[in-house]
């Protein structure tokens, strides 16, 4: 046994061997090209701190920033038939679903939740573009109906965040049927006198734009979001003309009366609180009007003692 070969050389090599680093620690901004640390992006709600470009954000990340204390409860959505058309292209539809579920950690392209935002009770629904392009299938239709029914039951506003490439081709005509179904769900809210606010994020296209995404009482969009039915490339190839600069982007639609506001993600929560309290006849929200977090000592005290201790903490 050669101790130099078996011990010394591996020991020396260990000091000079390059260690592998995780690939998801840094994200390159597609707009300005700068590299951003993943924690920096997460703290800034996936918005580039250099140019302000809005990167994709998952529904759970959005809800954690939206609801008070990041606390929300999921609303159950009825499960549709898994593969009604036995569709297959390069892969079977169930295989595509399993791959999307594994990649995102979600079971479908829309998440529905309820909770409070600035002490204002709401029901919220958000699409996940990373799940098969956020495509609108039967589950998404069921989710919007479930969200509307829950909002009517609780007498709360519904806030919907859209992000989709259109209808889901693997479900054919059944996916297109979600357009009238979701339109009826929105009508339920209007008949109940409840606000329906839509936040259009990048991208919102196809049948989603042609149905529930453009039926809000208030239409808000994130900066530079693509919002359209047919994409710019398809239109250019059809009419054989060059489109105007920024065509079908949020700022262009705002200038032409299709939107009410274009709001950065960081300011969206406060704006939604102000709009919803105005629409529901509530007084303006009081900044800092949230209960103080319980300390480890006060958590075990009776409610009266805990409130007294929290009051002393505020005074000091």
Question: Helices, strands, pairings?
Answer:
Elements: H1 3-16, E1 26-28, E2 35-37, H2 38-43, H3 59-66, E3 73-74, H4 93-104, E4 110-116, E5 121-127, H5 138-154, E6 158-164, H6 172-176, H7 178-191, E7 196-204, H8 206-209, E8 218-221, H9 232-239, H10 250-255, E9 261-262, H11 265-279, H12 303-315
Parallel strand pairs: 5-6, 6-7, 7-8, 8-9
Antiparallel strand pairs: 1-2, 3-4, 4-5
Helix pairs in contact: 5-7
Brief rundown of the structure:
The chain has 316 residues and is α/β, with parallel strands linked by helices. The chain has twelve helices and nine strands. It has helices at 3-16, 38-43, 59-66, 93-104, 138-154, 172-176, 178-191, 206-209, 232-239, 250-255, 265-279, 303-315; strands at residues 26-28, 35-37, 73-74, 110-116, 121-127, 158-164, 196-204, 218-221, 261-262.
